[in-house]
Design brief:
This protein is α+β, with helices and mostly antiparallel strands. It is 32% helix and 31% strand.
Length: 170
């Protein structure tokens, strides 16, 4: 096992785009994603390109890629970034064979370190679908503290759902 977590490059954003476009309806539902809200591949890549061309303090998003032996198996993204304050973290293990392996906790912690350093954050929030136990357990094991469970539309790809809010404040 040779895990590497680092900021994602523009070329690697295809991994994110392909993950969502190739996910089954059942998996999208578990994540709280409305398939009708997933952007087409070209416009999504262009959005990534515009964002990655900006300095970190001006970005709307930030992402890390998770590699094992040089091959990507997961990633994390940030949204709702308030530079120097806080952001919302999302996490995905794309390779189903690597889920429930403990890799997620390690990669989340490494992603957190990158995010805090690059964006000068004071806190990190994570709000996975309340019924998706894997990311809820992962962020808890990574050191996040439970805040509450409530109903919301957490992001532009999501439908109205119950989410569990977790916070990490070093």
């Amino acid at each position: 096992m040779s895990l590497v977590v680092r900021p994602m490059t523009l070329e690697e954003t295809a991994f994110v785009i392909d993950y969502f476009h190739g996910a089954t309806p059942e998996h999208l539902e578990l994540m709280g994603v409305d398939p009708t809200r997933i952007p087409d591949k070209l416009s999504w890549r262009e959005r990534f390109a515009r964002d990655l061309a900006l300095p970190a303090e001006q970005r709307a998003s930030f992402a890390t890629i998770w590699l094992d032996g040089g091959a990507p198996f997961g990633f994390s993204t940030l949204s709702h970034i308030r530079f120097g304050e806080q952001a919302n973290m999302h996490l995905h293990i794309v390779d189903a064979d690597r889920r429930k392996s403990g890799f997620g906790v390690h990669c989340v912690r490494q992603s957190m370190a990158i995010y805090f350093q690059a964006l000068k954050l004071k806190r990190l929030l994570c709000e996975p679908n309340a019924f998706n136990t894997a990311p809820n357990r992962t962020v808890q094991k990574a050191g996040f503290r439970y805040v509450k469970t409530y109903w919301t539309v957490p992001g532009p790809l999501n439908f109205h759902q119950a989410v569990t809010r977790w916070v990490y404040e070093p």
